[in-house]
Amino acid sequence: MMLDNKIVIVTGASSGIGAAAALLFAAEGASVVLGARRPAELQAVVSRIIQAGGKAVALAGDVRDAGYASALVDKAVQTWGGLDGAFNNAGTLGTMGPVEGMSLEQWNEVMEINLTSAFLAARAQIPAMRQRGGGSIVFTASFVGFSNGGLPGMGAYAASKAGMIGLAKSLASDHAAEGIRVNALLPGGTLTPMGGSDPALLAQIAQLHPVKRLASPDEIAQAALFLLSDRASFITGSPMMVDGGVSVRLM
Questions:
Q1: With contact defined as beta carbons under 8 Å apart, do 236 and 182 qualify?
Q2: pLDDT on residue 125
Q3: Sorting pLDDT into bands at 50, 70 and 90, what band is 250?
Q4: Rounded Cα gap, residues 246 and 248, in angstroms
Q5: Measured between alpha carbons, how far is 66 from 62 in angstroms, rounded to an integer?
Q6: Please, what is the average pLDDT of the chain?
Q7: Are residues 115 and 123 in contact, defined by beta-carbon separation less than 8 angstroms?
Q8: pLDDT band of 214, cuts 50, 70, 90
Q9: Angle of helix 39-51 relative to helix 16-27, nearest 10 degrees?
Q10: What letters, b where the CB count within 10 A reaches 16 and e where it falls short, cover 56-69?
Q11: Which residue has the higher pLDDT, 151 or 79?
Q12: H or E, element range at 166
């Protein structure tokens, strides 16, 4: 098992990539603490994990809240005894369209959910990992905002995800000597509730990818599993593409 005896936080865990990751991590031996805003949906994922013989607890809250970031860490420590990894996956697309038509409130919402939450999470998680002698943090970023992967109408989203990649690199440099690895996962288009359900739009997005399809949440979760595991022990500060080649096509 790739995460045997590891204690891992997963945010955005009520659906999509986060739920798939929580189920996979638990199947790979991790004791997981699940975070998201919707308690009923979170508990449903916890129930699936426990029914399959895994270990999971949940704590609902808003990733924009500094107290919630600390509470998730406290939950891991109090329930399982520490913290070894975190998949900081919660995020939002936010308002789509040109920046000139965006309000400051709309801009701030995207930055707070995507980027400020990553800062708050890492700030709370790193001391707990230090006490364990190391750990691994993975942020869900995006090919959008990286290299030439920007797409029209996604200014706030692209800026927040580019900032997350920069944050991951800086944190990796700061904490590598302590055995704490920090990486950014860059998915391509993925079939999740956040991506919508319009078949025509999904087909159009799929055609941007050289593989001519979208990813399943499980495929992205597998990449997160690798980065969190000891098999990625020499990988830190990396923006890891899991994008079906779309970034290559756009470069």
A1: yes
A2: 98
A3: low
A4: 5
A5: 9
A6: 92
A7: no
A8: confident
A9: 30
A10: bbbbbbebbeeebb
A11: 79
A12: helix 155-175
Query: Residue 148: which pLDDT band, with cuts at 50, 70 and 90?
Result: low
For residue 64, give every residue at least 6 positions away whose Cβ sits within 8 Å of its Cβ, in sequence order, or none: 112, 113, 116, 117, 120
Give dist(CA 133, CA 8) in Å, integer: 15
Structural domains of the chain sorted by starting position, each given as residue range(s) with its CATH number in brackets: 7-244 (3.40.50.720)
The residues pairing with 215 across neighbouring beta strands, listed in sequence order, are 190
Structure tokens at 22: 């929580």
| Residues taking part in catalysis | 157
Q: Write phi, then psi, for 174 (nearest 5 degrees).
A: -65, -35
Q: In which element (H, E) is residue 247 found?
A: helix 246-250
Other beta carbons within 10 angstroms of residue 133's beta carbon come to: 11
Q: Cβ neighbours of residue 105 under 8 Å, at least 6 residues apart?
A: none
Residues 6+ apart with CB under 8 A from 231: 2
The string of pLDDT tens digits covering residues 89-105 is 999 999 889 999 999 99
State the burial class of residue 237 (Cβ atoms within 10 Å of its Cβ: 0-12, 13-18, 19+): middle
Where residue 121 falls (left for φ over 0; alpha for ψ -120 to 50; beta otherwise) is: alpha
Q: Is the pLDDT of residue 202 over 80?
A: no
Q: Which amino acid is at 181?
A: R
Q: How far apart are the C-alpha atoms of 47 and 51, rounded to whole Å?
A: 6
Which helix (H) or strand (E) covers residue 68, if one does?
helix 66-80
Q: With 80 as the cut, is the pLDDT of residue 251 above it?
A: no
What pLDDT shows up at residue 208? Answer: 76
